[in-house]
Write a structure and sequence with these properties.
Fumarate Reductase Iron-sulfur Protein, Chain B, domain 2, alpha/beta, Uridine Diphospho-n-acetylenolpyruvylglucosamine Reductase, domain 2, Alpha-Beta Plaits, 29 strands, five-stranded antiparallel beta sheet, about 15% strand
Length: about 1000
């Protein structure tokens, strides 16, 4: 990555920095590779990753890097890491402000201001502002992981920008660490007060202000001519907005500067009242061009925003977790025509009466205007419904990455902006260019602002694709220039900066002068936006000059690429960086704040590990780093459900471990835990003795220190209960005692944990089934195999899968429903049992339903007995995270069932409980497991007590060990409800 001389300089720099620094300095290969990508086509490996804790850390770092002996070191800030153009990628020092500098310092609801550190996530800020009826306006699709510092550095904007503008419109003050380590505190200054303000600043800062003022005063005509009059403008180095003869606002130079002028570390923001009344009008069209044309007329009715999505994105959404909540808003038209584009038109008002008038006007317009063919029109009312629809729109970037095949949507011309009145014509030419090159593509965007996101599908492992990136980029630059627009209307310039001189035109030398004032030696994120005129040899990085991800990807063997397919297709959209602790996505990232422990981080490391394996570049040190990253995964599978690209890290973890342990031995613990299911029937015969020893302190200490396991669950006193005494029929091995096609029977598939450790749930499920007038049959006990899979024993898992699949298939032939109790174990039968590993999955056909899936179907065809009156107690459902993300309908199914039983059930938005099967019992994860539980579950469990219902065995086990309480399964409440029948 670097030459030996440069490595010596870096080592010296780090050694000099460490005594001055309170944050983290990570020189690991893992950290470098995780920070080598964003959501762009590039992969640039940094020399070291630095995580400052505060402003002092950054000042110390900048003072040091500015010394003469470090002239050749370059430095770049990084926030959410979701950029689409390599803005934060560097082969120098990368400084991540998101890990520690993420505090909301102050909110003033009276003045409507907020002061935040650069690493604060936008949704994190809005969650706090909502308590005061306020919000930070620029709305992004990445709002649950985009940092305020990143938004400022790209001058981000999105939905609603015609009313709310861009980020710089809401920046009141900034704190920026300059290249010499000084802290620049900037706000709008009246020209009449400039001399007084500057008298309190350093000589360097005084010179900076005076030169900026000189540039604008002496070049007003040139500046006016060069910067286009667009809602999205040119972003960064915004000379027209610097000076208006009355005021000087240096913040407008810094906003959009992408770390090329200094490190923005803190911001004072203007915040706005949340709109009181809102509605979203969802319109479906017969073709995408009609959606674009219609937006012109709809804008005349003064909506808050108009978002457009094409059929490719819409159809991908139908197979995504999001469709569960939004499908109702996009009904299939009665005509044979298919919806090829949609407009999401948001309207708002101060009162409901005013909103109703707006609705009426819009609906009347849609009914009377026949200029375009509209196929559907629905309304989403109120914040919750609108949020559901916008969640689908926000996932557009990720959804496009989930297309089938190796050609994937690539971001390089995906945020062009033209005057809205030219948008339809512009897109016609844009599409003609893509069509002429045989490219497929998806489109979505903000038609009200003339911004459309277009991602052509390319396989970047193919060398010809890079040539197409250059060709299409050059042509689109010409096209946007022709229509008076820009190619970077929203997502910054980054590694597209070679086009900057074209769009800045005659003003580009002025931009170079600005760069030189702030960064005369070209050390801050060099090669982006502008080169300083003090460095005549400095050059902008050309479009294809930086390394491409495809160059790395094509070095992975085809076999491995196919086996690890979902991980290979991670596009870096960063949905797994979701800050919300009440969202199940990647609990290990949330608790560590370390991007190595995120699905994106792990996917990046797996790819690099496979590349090295194929090219013979393996090293034990890197092997261990990748192992540590994957070992921290809870295997909860939330990523597989929530990632728009369906990146399945638990699956890749199992495949990796199989390869890894072919080289390095498994631990004794791995063998014991993975085969626990096999031993449990035998161990249950000695359950009393087993429990006695497990309660001994000495045994616990030995298990913790020698075998690295803690809090081993105990056999339940009823574990040896006689199933036949419960009225269930235990099936024999050949299933000869199984009736055929009985609609009065259910076959329960045992799992080790509810059978032996949480036996009351197993028993009450049998009792409940009998109370419904059905005969429960119990399949012979067999291991499910999930622990084998989690720990990478793929060969053993496949052997077990073959055996159990035969039994399950034979049982399924009876036509009687197969039902599992624990959701995580049950879902293994429809996921891991169906996947290809070293061998094709068994062809036998069976489907094991979760309890609520079976019961909901049964209730649709059968009636319950008369139920006695019941007091109006309300229950709260905490679903297993695997269940909620893999089968999004599961919580709604439980609610439907409880309603049929005349019981109120509310589904809770929660993260992960932190147990996740074996993870919580591994000594090295004990503390993290507890922290994950405390982040989300603990507060709700304490609040709702016995009304807190839990579907997952591991979740109930976590509550038992941390709260010393036994949580109930929903089936136990239903069983009690039928007690008196």
């Amino acid at each position: 990555m670097t030459d030996p001389a440069q490595n010596i300089v870096i080592k010296d720099f780090i050694n000099q920095l460490k005594p001055l620094f309170y944050g983290d300095i990570d020189e690991s290969e893992a950290a470098k590779f995780v920070n080598s990508t964003d959501n762009s086509i590039y992969q640039v490996i940094p020399q070291v990753v630095i995580y400052p804790k505060n402003i002092d850390d950054i000042q110390s770092m900048m003072q040091l890097v500015n010394l003469e002996q470090y002239t050749n070191l370059v430095i770049t800030p990084r926030g959410g890491g979701t950029g689409t153009n390599g803005q934060s990628l560097t082969n120098g020092l990368v400084v991540d402000l998101s890990r520690y500098m993420n505090k909301i310092i102050h909110i003033d609801p009276i003045q409507r201001t907020a002061i935040v550190e650069a690493g604060v996530v936008k949704d994190q800020l809005n969650l706090e502002l909502k308590k005061h009826g306020l919000f930070f306006a620029p709305e992004l699709s990445t709002s649950n992981r985009a940092t305020i510092g990143g938004m400022i550095n790209t001058d981000a904007s999105g939905q609603g920008s015609c009313r709310y503008g861009k980020t710089h419109h809401h920046v009141l003050g900034l704190k920026t660490v300059l290249i010499n380590g000084e802290l620049l505190e900037s706000e709008t200054i009246k020209i009449t007060e400039l001399a007084s303000v500057l008298s309190h600043k350093s000589a360097f800062q005084q010179n900076l202000y005076k030169q900026l003022l000189d540039i604008t005063e002496n070049n007003q005509e040139l500046i006016e001519k060069s910067f286009p009059k667009l809602n999205r403008s040119l972003t960064g180095y915004d000379l027209p907005a610097l000076y208006d003869k009355q005021e000087l606002n240096i913040n407008n130079i810094l906003c959009g500067s992408e770390g090329t002028l200094g490190f923005i570390v803190e911001a004072k923001l203007n915040v706005l009242p949340i709109p009181k009344c809102r509605a979203l009008i969802n319109i479906g069209y017969d073709n995408f061009q009609n959606a674009l044309k219609d937006a012109k007329a709809l804008m005349a009715l003064n909506p808050l925003s108009i978002e457009t999505v094409d059929s490719k994105v819409l159809n991908l959404a139908k197979n995504d977790i999001v469709w569960q909540k939004v499908g109702q808003y996009f009904p299939e038209p009665a005509s044979p025509l298919q919806i090829q584009g949609i407009n999401l038109v948001e309207i708002d008002a101060e009162t409901q009466d005013e909103l109703d008038v707006l609705k009426t006007n819009f609906i009347q317009h849609l009914q009377n205007d026949q200029s375009v063919k509209r196929l559907s029109m629905t309304l989403a009312n109120g914040d919750d419904e609108i949020k559901d629809v916008y969640t689908m729109r926000k996932r557009s970037v990720g959804l496009l990455g989930n297309v089938v095949g190796e050609k994937r949507p690539q971001p390089f011309v995906e945020d062009t902006a033209v005057p809205p009145e030219y948008l339809a014509d512009y897109i016609t030419e844009f599409r003609a260019l893509l069509d002429s090159n045989g490219l497929d593509y998806g489109m979505f965007g903000h038609v009200d602002a003339g911004v459309l996101h277009v991602r052509p599908l390319l396989d970047m492992k193919d060398a010809h694709s890079a040539k197409l990136v250059q060709l299409i980029s050059d042509k689109i630059v010409e096209l946007t220039h022709k229509y008076g627009g820009v190619i970077w209307g929203e997502h910054g310039k980054g590694l597209r900066s070679e086009y900057a001189p074209i769009f800045f035109g005659e003003a580009y030398p002025l931009i170079q002068r600005v760069k030189a004032i702030f960064d005369p030696l070209n050390k801050l994120n060099p090669g982006k936006i502008a080169t300083p005129d003090t460095q005549p040899k400095a050059k902008l990085i050309k479009l294809l000059e930086a390394p491409l991800r495809g160059d790395f990807d094509k070095q992975i063997s085809r076999k491995d690429w196919q086996k690890f397919s979902t991980t290979m297709h991670c596009n870096g959209n960063g949905a797994c960086f979701n800050f919300d602790v009440n969202d199940p996505m990647c609990p290990s990232y949330k608790v560590t704040r370390d991007r190595i422990h995120s699905p994106k981080g792990r996917a990046t490391l797996v790819k690099e590990w496979l590349r090295r394996e194929n090219s013979g570049e393996q090293s034990q040190a890197f092997d261990v780093e990748v192992y540590d990253a994957l070992h921290g995964c809870l295997s909860c599978k939330s990523c597989a459900g929530q990632c728009p690209v369906k990146v399945d890290i638990p699956d890749s973890k199992a495949r990796f471990l199989q390869k890894y342990h072919a080289r390095y031995k498994h631990s004794i613990r791995d063998y014991l835990i993975s085969n626990l299911e096999r031993f449990m029937p035998l161990m249950s015969n000695f359950s009393g003795l087993y429990n006695f020893f497990q309660k001994m302190k000495l045994v616990q200490i030995v298990q913790r220190d020698v075998f690295k396991v803690v809090d081993i669950p105990l056999f339940h006193p009823q574990a040896k209960a006689d199933i036949s005494e419960l009225g269930a029929i235990l099936l024999n091995g050949d299933l000869s005692n199984l009736p055929q096609s009985s609609n009065k029977a259910v076959i329960l598939v045992q799992d080790a944990f509810t059978r032996y450790f949480d036996t009351p749930v197993f028993i009450e499920t049998i009792q409940f089934i009998r109370k419904l007038g059905l005969q429960p049959y119990i399949l012979p006990y067999f291991p499910n195999g999930k622990p084998l899979h989690v720990h990478g024993f793929i060969k053993e898992f496949e052997e077990l899968r073959s055996e159990t699949s035969l039994l399950l298939s034979k049982a399924a032939q009876s036509g009687i429903a197969l039902v599992g109790i624990d959701p995580a174990m049950t879902l293994v039968y429809r996921q891991e049992y169906k996947a290809q590993y070293d061998h094709e999955p068994p062809e036998e056909s069976f489907n094991v339903l979760m309890l609520q899936e079976w019961l909901k179907e049964w209730l649709e065809l059968n009636s319950l007995p008369a139920l006695p009156a019941v007091s109006s107690q309300k229950y709260f459902l905490a679903g297993h995270c695997t269940e909620r993300t893999q089968v999004p309908a599961s919580t709604a199914q439980w609610q439907t069932i409880f309603k049929a039983f005349e019981i109120e059930l509310e589904s809770l938005a929660l993260g992960c409980c932190g147990m996740a099967g074996t993870y919580g019992h591994e000594a090295e994860h004990r503390h993290l497991s507890e922290q994950i539980y405390q982040q989300s579950w603990q507060e709700k469990q304490v609040e709702y007590g016995t009304s807190f219902l839990v579907t997952g065995y591991s979740c109930r086990s976590q509550i038992k060990r941390l709260q010393q309480e036994q949580a109930l399964h929903p089936i136990q409440i239903l069983n009690h409800r039928l007690q008196a029948v």
